[in-house]
């Protein structure tokens, strides 16, 4: 029956000790309750609890304070040396050794500090390191006066009593640390875990991540300003109606390529024909009047008729020129980019009305829309690259030529037009294509280039708030 009750009693003692620790409001109070109850349960003269962090050990609680003031410093140093001896070896140590302690032979562990401590105070001493997850953070030292030694069974009993107390003490210690202490502890623990052989792949991934982070943070690369781009002909001409009239026929539509001199639009010239016939009739009348006046030697009438003949001839020459201009032809090899007149047959036009827009096909220019937050970095002569939506696999080089000094609003943003010339002309290029252009304005690390816009907006918001 006694053997059946012993595990139950030990478990109750462990639970009672754990409950008393949890009832404490601070680590110091919990440590004092622990050492007092251990001294009472084990029959020890003195029980001491010490903490060990960052290679340093200090006393936290003691069940008694019977050291004389003149001997307190020396005794404390001997005690801490003995505790460090047990922590460094990671096993419980005691002195003097019990006769039946065959499991821990004198040659197995070093007990020099425990021997000096025992010689200083007499009796028997022992130290038990405490830790969780393979990390020692505290130690308990016990002292007993007289000639009775501390047996291996008593040390095992101490370990059993502290099985739940050790994690509780560690939780309390972590709870009282400041945030930067917890952060440093976490970093130290992480570094310690990474040193383990099983974390070789983790170390490799972490090293690769650090290299990538260093690259994007420190290594400068080309930094480009991007914007929507469109291709235009270097020479663009608007063809307008030479006179009032009506559209007879349109020979081209937008997208057609034309050669110089090719007919584009014909205007109806019936009115000009009638006007021409009228002036021809008047010319004949004036010539007859001039001849009659000359026959009569009427010098005044001849002079008047002669001037009227000149007027009629000038009007006929003007009408002939207007009839010639009734057929609009291409002034150069070009592409029709605007003006669909195929659905406007017979429509009236007035002199000066725009009919067609032509763009040259031998030279091109690129217009890039640059946001107002980036325009200050763009300079004439900077290189860039153009990618068109319809020619995504062909990249064309460009160079900035001119920056339009006026901004215009597009989709709630102010943009500036930057004109650039192509240094490489891809196959299939034609005016009117749109895409994306990148203008290289300097060299910056990737992370600063990515965060530049956000930092500028934050700076602007801060300035508008603070002033």
Give a verbal description of the structure.
The protein is an alpha+beta fold and 467 residues long. The protein folds into 4 domains: 2-186, 2-Layer Sandwich (Beta-Lactamase), CATH 3.30.450.40; 188-220, no CATH class; 241-353, no CATH class; 363-466, Beta Barrel (Elongation Factor Tu (Ef-tu), domain 3). Helices cover 42% and strands 31% of the residues. It contains 11 helices and 19 strands. The chain has a 6-stranded antiparallel barrel. β17 and β18 form a beta hairpin. α1 packs antiparallel against α2 (27-42) and α2 (27-42) packs antiparallel against α6 (165-176). The two termini are 85 Å apart. Residues 1-5, 66-71 and 101-107 have low confidence and may be disordered.
C-alpha termini separation: 85 Å
Number of domains: 4
The shape, in one word, is rod-shaped
Secondary-structure-derived class: alpha+beta
Low-confidence blocks of residues = 1-5, 66-71, 101-107
Strand order of the largest sheet: 6-15-18-17-16-19
Architecture of the largest domain, CATH level 2? 2-Layer Sandwich
Helix content: 40-55%
Summed over residues and divided by their number, the pLDDT gives a mean of 82
Share of β-strand residues: 25-35%
Number of strands: 19
The number of distinct helices, counting runs of at least 4 residues, comes to 11
CATH topology description of the largest domain = Beta-Lactamase
């Amino acid at each position: 029956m006694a053997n059946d009750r012993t595990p139950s009693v030990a478990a109750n003692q462990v639970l009672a000790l754990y409950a008393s620790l949890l009832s404490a409001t601070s680590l110091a109070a919990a440590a004092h309750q622990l050492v007092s109850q251990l001294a009472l349960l084990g029959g020890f003269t003195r029980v001491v609890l010490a903490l060990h962090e960052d290679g340093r050990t200090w006393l936290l609680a003691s069940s008694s304070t019977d050291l004389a003031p003149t001997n307190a410093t020396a005794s404390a140093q001997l005690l801490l040396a003995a505790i460090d001896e047990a922590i460094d070896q990671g096993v419980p140590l005691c002195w003097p050794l019990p006769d039946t302690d065959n499991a821990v032979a004198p040659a197995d562990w070093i007990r020099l500090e425990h021997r000096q401590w025992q010689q200083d105070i007499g009796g028997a001493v022992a130290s038990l390191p405490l830790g969780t997850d393979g990390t020692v953070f505290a130690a308990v030292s016990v002292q007993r006066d007289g000639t009775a030694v501390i047996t291996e069974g008593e040390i095992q009993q101490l370990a059993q009593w502290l099985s739940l107390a050790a994690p509780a003490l560690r939780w309390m210690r972590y709870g009282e640390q400041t945030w930067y202490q917890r952060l440093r502890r976490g970093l130290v623990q992480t570094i310690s875990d990474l040193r383990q052989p099983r974390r070789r792949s983790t170390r490799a991934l972490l090293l690769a991540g650090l290299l990538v982070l260093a690259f994007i943070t420190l290594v400068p690369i080309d930094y480009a300003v991007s914007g929507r781009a469109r291709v235009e002909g270097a020479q663009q001409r608007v063809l307008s109606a030479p006179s009032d009239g009506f559209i007879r026929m349109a020979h081209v539509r937008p997208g057609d390529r034309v050669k110089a001199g090719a007919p584009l639009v014909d205007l109806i010239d019936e009115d000009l024909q009638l006007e021409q016939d009228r002036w021809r009739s008047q010319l004949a009348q004036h010539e007859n009047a001039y001849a009659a006046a000359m026959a009569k030697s009427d010098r005044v009438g001849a002079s008047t008729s002669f001037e009227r003949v000149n007027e009629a001839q000038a009007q006929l020459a003007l009408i002939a020129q207007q009839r010639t201009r009734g057929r609009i032809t291409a002034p150069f090899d070009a592409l029709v980019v605007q003006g669909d007149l195929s659905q406007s047959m017979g429509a009236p036009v007035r002199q000066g009305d725009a009919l067609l827009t032509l763009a040259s096909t031998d030279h091109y220019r690129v217009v890039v829309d640059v946001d107002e937050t980036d325009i200050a970095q763009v300079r004439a002569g900077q290189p860039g690259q153009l990618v068109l939506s319809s020619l995504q696999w062909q990249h064309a080089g460009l160079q900035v030529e001119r920056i339009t000094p006026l901004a215009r609003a597009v989709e709630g943003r102010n943009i500036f037009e930057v004109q650039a010339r192509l240094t490489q002309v891809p196959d299939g290029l034609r005016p009117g294509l749109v895409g994306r252009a990148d203008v290289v304005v300097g060299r910056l690390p990737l992370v600063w280039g990515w965060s530049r816009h956000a930092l500028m907006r934050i700076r602007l918001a801060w300035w508008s708030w603070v002033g």
